[in-house]
Write a structure and sequence with these properties.
The chain is an alpha/beta fold. It has two domains: 125 residues, Rossmann fold; 158 residues, Rossmann fold, CATH 3.40.50. 41% of the residues lie in helices and 14% in strands. The protein has 13 helices and twelve strands. The strands form two sheets. The protein has a six-stranded parallel β-sheet, sandwiched between helices. The two termini are 19 Å apart.
Length: 337
């Protein structure tokens, strides 16, 4: 494989990248599996990371920030490379609690160590002041990790389209919770006959505890809801059935999103919160999108949903892959010689 398909291999097995992160199901398992594929690395725990000779990649700094800090300082003293992904940079960058102010100061301190690299999972320049806490940024894996997305043939896709009866489909697949804007999704559909006349709102995924009544409201209002865990083919079916994918998340959830990434790779338009990082990324990368706040949702009846652009999506993903692998390669191994 070429340099841009995977990262440079370690010269010796003992120097392979060690990947530290929880191996749970869902997106975490996908991140770990893909990171192993592109680095040729192996999965291990924090204790192994302290004695690892080759580079260490911590897949989510937020899983154990003090452990990450200790690991970086120990390994920097030994001249060994440590890289971490910061999934939620904005609280660390802007938060005013004592804990977040301390975290910000410690991240800034780590930037003084040449063998420590902190990377955001969205381009760092999307965040004003992002360079204060991060050395660089890559594009979230789920914006570019797959080959060209081909149309799926799945009964669920056909069920959603039949339920739409010629209307456009706004799909909200994945976790159905408050941070993902599920209450606003349901309420807007329930309260607007005009929206119900033009669109089918379709939700699918595990419903957060306490929000089960919202799934019933969506169904009783004429929407489509599959309130359970979705398999990968079912997630793809939701994306395939959609004219636009719901990514209008709560303001507190201003970070990378796998649902957004999968939609972007398919060329499907996304509905994002105006002013969010996902909105800025959509503007910078010319991703088909609508930028709204929940109060704007009734206006969807007169809004023009952008047309999908699969060809542009393929070119965009290839460019993101090339750029992200170059940056991650440099973070793990230093400048190419």
């Amino acid at each position: 494989m070429s340099r841009m398909e995977t990262l440079r291999p370690a010269a010796r097995a003992a120097d392979r990248v060690l990947l530290v992160g929880r191996a749970q199901g869902g997106h975490r398992a996908e991140y770990l599996s893909f990171a192993k594929a592109i680095t040729g690395g192996r999965h291990g725990g924090w204790l192994r990371a302290f004695v690892q000779r080759g580079p260490v990649l911590v897949l989510m700094i937020e899983d154990g920030f003090l452990l990450f800090l200790s690991l970086c300082l120990w390994r920097a003293a030994l001249g060994r490379r440590t890289v971490g992904f910061l999934f939620r940079p904005l609280p660390a960058l802007r938060g005013q609690t004592l804990r977040l102010r301390c975290k910000r100061r410690m991240l800034r301190g780590l930037r003084r160590h040449g063998n420590v690299r902190c990377l955001t999972l969205l381009p760092r320049d999307l965040m004003e002041g992002g360079g204060l806490i991060a050395d660089d940024g890559i594009h979230d894996f789920q914006l570019w990790d797959r080959p060209v997305a081909r149309p799926v043939s799945h009964a669920l896709r056909d069920d959603i389209r039949r339920a739409a009866r010629g209307r456009m489909v706004i799909a909200a697949p994945g976790s159905l919770n408050a941070l993902k804007g599920f209450p606003e999704f349901v309420t807007a559909f329930r309260d607007s006959p005009a929206l119900r006349g033009k669109f089918l709102f379709a939700g699918g995924g595990r419903v957060a505890p306490g929000l089960e009544p919202m799934s019933a409201v969506l169904k009783s209002s004429g929407g489509f809801c599959l309130p359970r865990h979705l398999s990968e083919p079912e997630l793809a079916a939701f994306h395939e059935a959609a004219d636009a994918v719901w990514c209008l998340y709560d303001a507190a959830y201003d970070q990378a999103s796998g649902i957004y990434g999968r939609a972007v790779q398919r060329g499907c338009p996304v509905i994002v919160r105006r002013g969010s990082l996902l909105h800025r990324l959509a503007e910078v990368e010319a991703i088909p999108h609508l930028a709204l706040v929940p109060e704007d949702l009734p206006g969807l009846t007169t809004a023009a949903i952008p047309a999908p652009d699969p060809d542009a999506a393929v070119a965009r993903a290839a460019r993101m892959r090339h750029d992200s692998l170059e940056r991650l390669d440099r973070a793990l191994w230093g400048a190419a010689g």
